[in-house]
Amino acid sequence: MREGFQGELDQLTADLNESGRLAASAVAEATRALVDWSVEAFEATVAAEAEVALRHAEIEQRVEQILARQAPVASDLRQVLASLHVNRSIERAAHNAARVAHLATPPPRGALVEEAVITDALRAMGERGSEMIRTALDAFERRDPSAPRILAVLDELVDRENKKIADTILTIDMSDPELRQWASRMLFAARWLERVGDHAVNVAERVGYMVTGRADDGPPGAS
């Protein structure tokens, strides 16, 4: 009985890792769509988000079945509940990636210093966000209690790029309505990429609580 239950938990972890891989890919492709205006990258983002959404529903249903059949206790229960929250964070990260991709549009005029700063920062945020998802899911698989500290450091780097974008946009001459619209879209894109990092941090916090059972490592209900 226990062997079968452990097999279910292992399969759940494997499925979450695959969803995380798809979400990380969605973030990377969304960033490419945003800064390179790639139709191919846009379509890849949308496809990855759709697949993650499908897997999210299937995993959620499986978690409910495990809880109903197995009635896990203590550390096993923490793992099952963590899987439920990790699943949700992955789905949200992929959804935010799709939001980013839908904001893709070229700047309205020739290259400016401000535009280069913004697109470079967006690219860095996307690369870091994708890395954070992979790191968080790797920590989940390895049951690494140091995950919250590692992800907090990476998240701070994302926040710095987000602030750089906001500060740069404030220096742009907004008398040009097309430039103003483009800058606004990039500001929203930065916000969604920043949220990707937050969702990765949420995964890490769940890992910390799952392993240690301590409330300060990410108790159920943490945002």
Care to give the gist of this entry?
With about 220 residues, this protein is mainly α. The protein is built from 6 helices and no strands.
Structural commentary:
By secondary structure, this protein is mainly α. The chain has a single domain (2-217), classed as Phosphate transport system protein phou homolog 2, domain 2 (Methane Monooxygenase Hydroxylase, Chain G, domain 1, Up-down Bundle), CATH 1.20.58.220. 83% of the residues lie in helices and 0% in strands. Helix 2 runs antiparallel to helix 3 (74-102) and helix 4 runs parallel beside helix 6 (177-212). The longest helix is centred in the last third of the chain and has 36 residues, at 177-212. 42% of the residues are buried.
Q: Could you spell the SSE succession in H and E letters?
A: HHHHHH
Overall structural class, as computed from helix and strand content, comes to: mainly alpha
Beta fraction: under 5%
Number of strands: 0
In percent, how helical is the residue content? over 70%
**pLDDT averaged over residues:** 89
Instruction: State the CATH superfamily name.
Output: Phosphate transport system protein phou homolog 2, domain 2
CATH uppermost class = Mainly Alpha
How many separate helices? Answer: 6
Query: What is the CATH topology descriptor?
Result: Methane Monooxygenase Hydroxylase, Chain G, domain 1
The CATH architecture comes to Up-down Bundle
Alpha-carbon Rg, integer: 19 Å
Shape: elongated
The N- to C-terminal Cα distance equals 35 Å
Number of domains: 1
Low-confidence stretches: 219-223
